[in-house]
Amino acid sequence: MGKVNRRQLVKAGLGLAGLAVSSRFSFAIAQREEPIRIGVVLSYSGPYARLGQEITRGMELYLERVDYQAGGRRIQLLKEDEEADPAVAVRKVRKLVEQDRVHLLAGIILSSSAYGIRDYVHERQIPLVVANAAANGITRERRSPYIFRTSISAWQQHYPMGPWVARNVGKRVFLLALDYAFGKEATAAFKEGFLASGGEPVAEVYVPLGSTDYSAVISRIAAARPEAVFAVLSGSDAVIFMRQFVQFGLNRTVQLAVSGEVTDENVLEAIGDAAIGAKSGDHWVYTLNNSANREFIRAYRQKYGGVPNHFAVRGYDAMQFIVGALNDVQGDVGNKSRLLTAFKNAKIISPRGFVQIDPETNNATQHVYAREVARIDGVLTNRLIADLGVIRDPGK
Amino acid sequence: MALLLLTQLLNSLAFAMLLFLLALGLSLIFGVARVVNLAHGAFYMLGAYLGLVLTNALGNFWLALLLVPLGVGLLGVAVERFLLRGLHGRELEQVLLTIGLGFVIADLLRGVFGAAIRSVPPPPELSGPLFLGAFLYPKYPLFVLGLGVALFLAVRLVLARTPFGIQVRAVTADPDMASALAVPPARVSLLTFGVGTALAGLGGVVGAPLIALAPGLDAQMTLFALIVVVIGGLGRIEGAFWGALLVGVVDGFGRLFLPQAAMFLIFALMALVLALKPEGLLGRRVA
Amino acid sequence: MMAWIPQKALKEWRRGLPWLMRGGLWLLFLAPLLVQGYTLYLATEAALFGLAAVALSFLLGHGGIPSLGQAAFLGLGAYAVGLSLKAGLPLALGLLVAPAVAALYALLTGLLLFRTHGIFVLMLTLAFGQMVYSVAHKWNAVTGGDDGLSLQGTGLSPTLLHLGALGLLVLAVAGLRLLLQSPYGKTLEAIRQNEEKVRSLGVPAFYYKLWAYVLTGALTGLAGAGVALHRTFVSPHDLFWLTSATLMVMVLLGGSRGLFGAAFGALLYTFVQAWVSSFTELWGLFVGGLLILTVLFAREGLWPLLERKLGGGRGSA
């Protein structure tokens, strides 16, 4: 039996290798000029797999719109799995740069991955477009002329919520966040604005990432009797928290004013109608009435079915920035300084409104909105309550 | 404050009973088949996803509660028969095989069901809170609590009174002696593996509405079950029960008062127990 | 099967084969220097994880101590060198501190560990390992928490780093093999085979196992320091128990006895995993399947299997 198995294995291996080679080959033949290769590093496995999938959907949606062309050249995406592990992100970035010779990098889910690859990208002078990682430091003390963030910083997303919650939801608020850099930075930013507007945090609780049970926290909330809960949770943490919040009947007495991550459409799908009425702050809203957003939602629905979410928007916009910059330099990725200047001056009409890169920090300056969970057109999503204005990250 | 503590006690106990379902299976399997089944959390996940599918297809949670453990148990039987039996007596290889199996099951589930987080609503009879005067508590955790205790009593009865139970106890205590007394250890081991994995599957169906369903939960549940079993004593169902209560309460109150250190507390508890009483709180020395 | 080969030549071939294979293995580790770039990066990673795997192989295959907590040593070494550099200490000193810290941790936990046996040791190492992980993950002020710790300005070229890692690996294999030939090593093997009997002869088995554990800890700590310099980055992820499981897979894949198998396993695993994860996100399926197949069909690992096949012997597995 050893022989047959071995032969089959060898065959399968050769087949796979052949597949990999031929797919790369066919691209090269199709285009006389070499395509622009963009290395995409996102988590496709592990706890953030859904985020990676949605960001990729957004990226591909935009690239299809421009027919995978920018600056007169073809665009090729090389996707690698970040595996929710910064060490893997470092390895994959090296692979993309040294083996696949990509011209640009995009993606990055985890802030720790962004920090992990920062020095390498900086030394190698490979432009990186961060499409998700939110740690403030990426465009503050550890910023690099080669690193641009088209998504949003933790501070930007949560600072404007503070005054808004204090004025419109309640002054006595229970603060709850995941115990990692993003949770802490987001809470600190919220508090900054909240305290200045006369808000009064009744408690500040940090819970470990990937908790299976939030009943302890919910008991504390019930005992503290706040007017509202401000929560920074994502993924399964958000789902479990929201479910148990309703199970314990707290939604009858306590309002939710949370990070946009908590009422992301992916999460809402898992929570169900129980989430209706929860308020949040975010940089995109389903009901934003601009043509870019309408076009984005129509295209997303047509291709993937279902309601889009802010991750898909982040992917869509990352590519919109990249394609815009490549058009500016007529596809000449060899001239780094021209390309970087094009990125710095980039402005796009995004589904989230007008977005531009702040040339000082390389972070996207953009609108932040107050939203409320509602059922619209039969799907569970967020509707716009207020525009909190154009927010720029101070960069320090 | 008193209400807070009471609520949290109930929460901890409900979670403890979920851990008990998992730990019971793990413990039985170890006791009889001498296998540390590190794929246990993956069987839990399998049960949870199957429960979700069946509940939606049949529109009935209770039927799923009955059918899913059967299916997962059958898979467990197949795993014992075709993968583990050949490695009899090779503890380390068996552990590694179950690690591999856990990876495979978890990835297949992700391939089929995607990476989205799912949450399963409790059956309508058990959703929403229960009002006891001013005290308000959800019904579902109470159901899990009751189920766990009932199961504990039932399993004790089965082990004490039925022929299968007596065989299980005999093989756990001394496999050589048991086979000398004409107890077929291979068959008992097969059945126990089936029952153990079925319990993990049951845990999945019961646990999904209590917590949620997300990729990565398998490794977490395996770790929890392992800690419970090691603290309580491998191969002892009383150990699994009291171990689960202890871990549930330490975890619950840890989360309440020291949320950042909750996981650390549990591992510290385990290290402490093992350092002082290596065979676990209620364990006997296993040769 | 190979009847047409003269018996004498076959005998010579079989005698020389292990040396040929060992030479071949080191050549495989050296070859990426010619290509540089990403291949070299992976090879350096393989050499460093190889060092940790060889240490585990010594502990598991020869000392009979199953550990699922090696990630703690790796992580302690990595943070030790990272923090030393951050504090402005010279690199050489950091490279001494790393194994020392890991060895100290091994000594402290070992004192508790070896009061138990077998599968309980496995569980305890896991528990201690996860405790270290929790601390590294939570102690933001020192470790940088989830953001990790960046190492700046180590100034080591990839070639130098690779040669250093490979040198350490070769030295570790040679040194540990010598140690196994010594009276200490022979006693350790005897303890693995029958601890009761050795004890009844008045041998303090506890200390034999403890020293093996401390030595393993120091070597793995050194490997961790290397990993930190190599990636110029330390993250608490590396301390999670899956890293320990990965090391176990490497050792088992190559073969837990003889130490060469572990080095081979690390090389094979590193490259295959990197290759597979590039075209499917279900790489866990692949790794899991590989583990199951190895356990079922190549129990003593691929290295001895390869040796037998090349030697023209019939597989006994």
Which fold does the CATH topology of the largest domain in chain A refer to?
A: Rossmann fold
Shape of chain A: globular
Strand content of chain B: under 5%
Largest sheet of chain A: 9 strands, mixed
User: Segments of chain A where pLDDT lies below 50 for 5+ residues?
Assistant: 9-32
Q: Superfamily at the CATH H level of the largest domain in chain A?
A: Response regulator
Q: How many β-strand stretches of chain B?
A: 2
Mean pLDDT of chain B: 86
Largest beta sheet: strand ordering of chain B: 1-2
Oligomer: heterotrimer
Secondary structure: helix percent of chain B: over 70%
Q: Please indicate the percent range of residues of chain A in DSSP E strands (runs of 2 or more).
A: 15-25%
Report how far the terminal alpha carbons of chain B are from each other. 47 Å
Structural class estimated from helices and strands of chain A: alpha/beta
Q: How many individual domains of chain A?
A: 2
Could you explain the architecture of this structure?
The complex is a heterotrimer of chains A (396), B (287) and C (317). Chain A has 2 domains: 34-152 and 290-366, Response regulator (Rossmann fold, 3-Layer(aba) Sandwich); 156-282, Rossmann fold. Chain A is built from 13 helices and 15 strands. Chain A has helices at 2-30, 49-65, 86-99, 111-124, 154-158, 161-168, 181-196, 215-224, 235-247, 265-271, 291-304, 310-328, 336-344; strands at residues 36-42, 69-70, 73-81, 104-107, 128-130, 147-149, 172-178, 200-207, 228-232, 255-259, 279-282, 347-350, 353-358, 363-376, 379-391. In chain A, the strands form 2 sheets. In chain A, strands 7, 8, 9, 10, 11, 12, 13, 14 and 15 form a 9-stranded mixed beta sheet that branches. Chain A has a 6-stranded mixed beta sheet with strand order 2-3-1-4-5-6, sandwiched between helices. In chain A, strand 9 (228-232), helix 9 and strand 10 (255-259) form a beta-alpha-beta unit. The longest helix of chain A has 29 residues, at 2-30. Chain A is globular, with a radius of gyration of 22 Å. By secondary structure, chain B is mainly α. Chain B has a single domain, classed as ABC transporter involved in vitamin B12 uptake, BtuC. Chain B is 75% helix and 3% strand. Chain B has 11 helices and 2 strands, in the order ααααββααααααα. Chain B has helices at 2-33, 40-58, 61-84, 91-113, 139-161, 163-173, 175-180, 185-210, 217-232, 237-257, 262-276, and strands spanning 129-132, 135-138. In chain B, strand 1 (129-132) and strand 2 (135-138) form a beta hairpin. Chain C has 317 residues and is an all-alpha fold. Chain C has one domain: ABC transporter involved in vitamin B12 uptake, BtuC (Orthogonal Bundle), CATH 1.10.3470. Chain C is 77% helix and 1% strand. Chain C has 15 helices and 2 strands. Chain C has helices at residues 7-30, 32-35, 37-62, 70-86, 91-113, 118-138, 140-143, 158-181, 183-193, 195-200, 205-231, 241-254, 260-279, 283-297, 302-310, and strands spanning 149-150, 233-234. Chain C has a two-stranded antiparallel ribbon. In chain C, helix 4 (70-86) runs antiparallel to helix 5 (91-113), helix 4 crosses helix 11 and helix 9 (183-193) crosses helix 11 (205-231). The chains are: A alpha/beta (396), B mainly alpha (287), C mainly alpha (317). The interface between A and B is large, with 38 and 45 residues.
